[in-house]
Amino acid sequence: MSWSGFKKNVSRGTTTLMMKTGHVERTSDREYEVEERRYRTLESAALRLQKEAKGYLDSLRAMTASQMRIAETIDAFYGDSGATDGVSRSYKQAVEDLDAETVKALDGPYRTTVLEPINRFCAYFPDINECIKKRNHKMLDYDAMRSKVKRLVEKPDKDPSKLPRTEKETEMAKAAYEQLNQQLTDELPQLIDLRVPYLDPSFEALVKIQLRFCAEAYSRMAQVQQYLDASTRDQYASGDLDARVEDVLGQIRELSIAGTV
Q1: CB within 8 A of 78, min separation 6: which ones?
Q2: Does the pLDDT of residue 245 top 80, yes or no?
Q3: What sections of the protein cross the membrane (predicted)?
């Protein structure tokens, strides 16, 4: 930071402190303040959307990875019985295909149509925030100059040229502040209004990608059903499955090694 920049920061810090103590009057623009609050709401929501959109893809991968681990464990649990009726191997193959084909096939389109547009939208925030910061600095400079003029009017300086010179500097500070203030007041609402038409295609893509994943997951799991015992499905539908489970547990309890359970 240059010496000039350092002095400006110190001066602005002093002005801010004097505003808090009531020694310097703060410029207020209600219209701008409303738009900045709306922008902050948009910024917060967009950054949260960016985080959750990335989290969705990570969660999808984590879920299919977990399914694969479960499938491997079930396959090992069934052992030769699973190999005989094909149920555990079928389930394992289904989740492997879901991970290898469906999730990986959706990765690219999801990044292109959902993640990247959201990331590009959020990439504008640092520049906008810098503009807001600059506007606030110009406001502090203007308020500081107004305070100087007020003091010179109340207590004239020995140098008669100091007041008109300070008034001229105040007008320049006012013009710089008002230019940025008006620009933000005009353009922040435009940015906020553009959020819906910009993100609509990404939202549509998200829905379609979720639909495809769910449809393919359902299709693959449905294929596994043919290997399941038909009587098990019927008992589940009729509500008799609990009795069957209790019967098996009873047989386990009759074993001498399980007699203490």
Answers
A1: 87, 88
A2: no
A3: none
